[in-house]
Specification:
This protein is of the alpha/beta class. The strands form 2 sheets. A 5-stranded parallel sheet has the order 2-3-1-4-8, sandwiched between helices. The two termini are 13 Å apart. 29% of the residues are buried. Pathway: Purine metabolism; AMP biosynthesis via salvage pathway; AMP from ADP: step 1/1.
Length: 215
């Protein structure tokens, strides 16, 4: 299967992508991984991306599309792939269609993870990270530490990242609504969109997604 995964920040796309890719036996292709791999390997596209990033500029669509195209052409993606974080806007979606058409391929589904905006804010703004080890992550509601502000694992101080503040989360949601959400209507016109609720436990959402994709 060839799938695009879409949803607002805080919808759990990365978590669900990993589970779905494993269940479907297809590679999980995330924008972040593409950038890291190309930059670390010093590819032509990676060097271009790094130059823009070092200058504080957004990486142009054509660079991102080029990285995605190269990855989709690798042997492990012959039977399908799951795209996470790409396409990010309608222009990228149109470019992806062109790439797939040139390779005589097409998407099978666009999985839309639906989460109410207030829940997104609650999920992200409630995160607390350990200053000693960023892998120790807690949540004021869903995974509260035994002692407020103290890491259960090492006793380090827990803090809220600037990126996780409610103000920042709401700005990120505005960007999502403006730039990325329109691709849902773009793909709905192609009868590809499958929308599921991303509320509940991780395994419940995965089961819901697998059921919807099988249909």
């Amino acid at each position: 299967m060839r799938i695009v995964l879409v949803g607002p920040p805080g919808a759990g796309k990365g978590t669900q992508a990993a589970f779905l890719a494993r269940n479907l036996d297809i590679p999980h292709i995330s924008t972040g991984d593409l950038f890291r791999a190309n930059i670390s390997q010093g590819t032509e596209l990676g060097l271009k991306a790094k130059a823009f990033m070092d200058a504080g500029d957004l990486v142009p669509d054509e660079v991102t599309i080029g990285m995605a195209k190269d990855r989709m052409e690798q042997a492990d993606a012959a039977n399908g792939f799951l795209l996470d974080g790409f396409p990010r806007n309608v222009a990228q979606a149109e470019a992806l269609d062109a790439v797939l058409k040139a390779e005589d391929m097409q998407l099978d589904a666009v999985l839309d993870l639906e989460v109410p905006e207030d829940e997104v804010v609650k999920r992200i703004a409630g995160r607390r990270i350990c200053r000693n080890d960023s892998s120790h992550v807690f949540h004021v509601t869903y995974n509260a530490p035994k002692t407020e502000g103290v890491c259960d694992v090492c006793g380090g101080e827990l803090f809220q990242r600037d990126d996780d503040s409610e103000e920042t989360v709401r700005r990120r949601l505005e960007v999502y609504h403006t730039q990325t959400e329109p691709i849902i209507d773009y793909y709905r016109a192609q009868n590809l969109v499958v929308t599921i609720s991303a509320l509940g436990k991780v395994d419940e959402v995965t089961a819901r997604a697998m059921g919807a994709l099988k249909k």
